[in-house]
Amino acid sequence: MIRYARSQETLLTYGLRTVPGVVNVSAGDDRQTVRLELTVGGRADAPAECEWIRIALPFGVKPEDLTVTAPEDLWTGTEGGSAPGHGGGWDSTVKREGEQLVVTFEPGREPVFDGTFQVTFVVSYIVVNEAVGTATISVTESTAPASGGGYQERATTFPVNKWPADFHVGNFRPDQVTVGNGERVTLTWERSRGPAYVLHWGENESQDVSQDSSWVSLPLERTTGFMLVATDDSNGGAPLVHALTTAVTVERPNLLVGDLDVNGTTRLQGARQQVAVPAVSTSQFYRAGTDGTLLGFLQAASGAAGSTLAATVYRAGANEYTMRFTSDNSSGPPTETPVSIPVPEGAEVLLHFGGQNGDTLQLVWLPQGAGTFEVIDR
């Protein structure tokens, strides 16, 4: 699960990913570890120079703390950032400061984050403490606008839920990703008992599925996103919430119009459009002018580490759902991972292409109307 920061305070943009996606607490000798991946980028319309970036982990045994791991036992690393203009390599230091573990990443030479590249900072072998609750990860940057001005410290935060040791949920999927108008799908998932589970879809539809591991949909008339939300309020503090998403494309969806006069030829399927995809290890925002589907493929270079595509769909400024595709060909010849992303009209879409030079991402826009899929600045 990736958490994005779109703070008005920071000059840089951030996405925090935990591995595993569900963070479980330790229980006695059953020690649970978590890896944090902080991906940092910039804005094309407001480039920023960077002096350093710090990640602060709350240290202790309380519900609001993350770990009691000693600084010397943490492992840190950097993915990207080795090119001269991207920092020329980054060094890291870890130390205990009061009730925090502070990890500082400093570049060999100060980069200008201008939206054309990203750097991912990794902190791993973090042993999670035994207290269920929510730990808040703080990220502080020392940055200055590239257009001029002195360096200032700016901060943002990320909440990380720590679930009971026996909690798990995953493998949320439909039995068909594309159906005809009026057809149903069966959604299945794996889960542990205890939390409340609610399935959301459409505009405001929902169903309590706390006792179920599958659900048959109503007849679908348009491309539909589904979200399975697990909520646990048994620890007496703020409820823990974890969400999984998936989507189903409906061929020939229903259209709702007011007045419609047609003279001549009518075509519901709009013209196919080649999408200008982000460069490797970068992100880009887009806006959909009509309902449609992004289709294409993702392919990692032969013998290389996996490449990924993360697509986050926003409506009314809120993250509606995220879809993630991975192509890992390190153990065999390259294969193409198919990509299919339904997008509703008016939505903004953030595409992040993770990988390395030589990886391939190709997407086309198939609109259910005349609207295009255009790059926008964010």
Structure commentary:
The mean pLDDT is 87. The chain is built from no helices and 28 strands. Strands 4, 6, 7, 8, 10 and 11 form a six-stranded antiparallel beta sheet that branches. A five-stranded antiparallel beta sheet has the order 1-2-3-9-5, with no helix packed on it. It has strands at 2-5, 13-19, 33-41, 48-58, 75-79, 90-97, 100-107, 112-113, 119-127, 133-145, 152-162, 169-174, 178-180, 186-191, 196-201, 205-208, 214-216, 224-232, 240-251, 273-274, 282-288, 292-299, 307-315, 318-327, 337-343, 348-354, 360-367, 373-376. It is mainly beta and 378 residues long. The radius of gyration is 22 Å and the shape is globular.
Key terms for this structure?
378 residues; mainly beta; 6-stranded antiparallel beta sheet; 28 strands; 52% strand
Quaternary structure annotation: single chain
Which structural category fits the helices and strands? Answer: mainly beta
Number of DSSP E strands = 28
Order of SSEs: EEEEEEEEEEEEEEEEEEEEEEEEEEEE
Q: Average pLDDT across residues?
A: 87
**Spans of 5+ residues with little confidence (pLDDT < 50)?**
none
Tell me what portion of residues adopts beta-strand conformation. Answer: over 45%
Beginning-to-end CA distance, first to last residue: 22 Å
Name the overall outline: globular
| Major pleated sheet | 6 strands, antiparallel
Report helical residue fraction: under 10%
Q: Nearest-angstrom radius of gyration?
A: 22 Å
How many DSSP H or I helices? Answer: 0
